[in-house]
Amino acid sequence: MNLDLHCHSTASDGLYTPQTLFDTARSQRLEVLSLTDHDTLANLEALTALAQGFFQVIPGIELSCRHAGENIHLLGYFDPQKPLPKALLSALADFRDKRRTRGLEMVRRLAQYYDIHIDPAPFLTREEASFSRAHLAELIQKDHPYSLQQIFERYLSPPSKAYLPASFLSVPQGVALLRSCGGLVFLAHPGLYKTPLEALCRFSLDGVEVYYPAHTPEQTARFRALCLERHLMMSCGSDDHGRPHDEKHGRLGTVPFSPKDLQPLLHRLGL
Questions:
Q1: What confidence tens digit (pLDDT) does each residue in 194-225 have?
Q2: Does residue 67 sit in helix, strand or coil?
Q3: Rounded Cα distance, 234 and 228, in Å
Q4: Does domain 3-82+171-268 have CATH number 1.10.10.10?
């Protein structure tokens, strides 16, 4: 089975529209795809409608959490045969409103301190979509000759006067939210964190994203062994954002994995 359980669209910080994501998934002959945008489900319905009769869409999300001064991301997977719970949609609406308030204040500060004037309207008109620093960086880049890395370093990160910290759930709060809404809770890309996987496993995870493009063969083997030892499920994802020449993330449907390792997760999702 060809699958990808981690990717992003224009609803968060990716470039894929539902249509281009569908087209790319078809070109890669995917049979199962999970759209896991950051803290939003805005493009899920459109992608699911397009995919009918072509491939299975697993409702998913990448939840932003914080632990020991580090950003930790949780992947939540939901039963494709059941409606998404209202409690989850309500919580995500609250996250969206807080992000938009933060983003608008950063827009004001960019103008005040750096004479950078941008119009956030293109992102704010999409009701359920998030408004993040990645969107601010895109808007800045349109009128200024800076790379995205330069924009983040100069204007959108400490100690920039325009920077505002985001509000995050703790990892236990994120796990509790996803589980209370019927989701399976996986740790995204454990190889990218300073906090060891062994320490994060104490938060009652259902599984771990073992197969990931930035993981070394040694990391993959270690994470897999830990999952087997602790009876945790495993997942596989490219984290594709649809950006050309993206060296930070993989490409849709190209991450190799052991089909046997993913059988427990697929079984839980009714596949």
A1: 999 999 999 999 999 999 999 999 999 999 99
A2: strand
A3: 9
A4: no
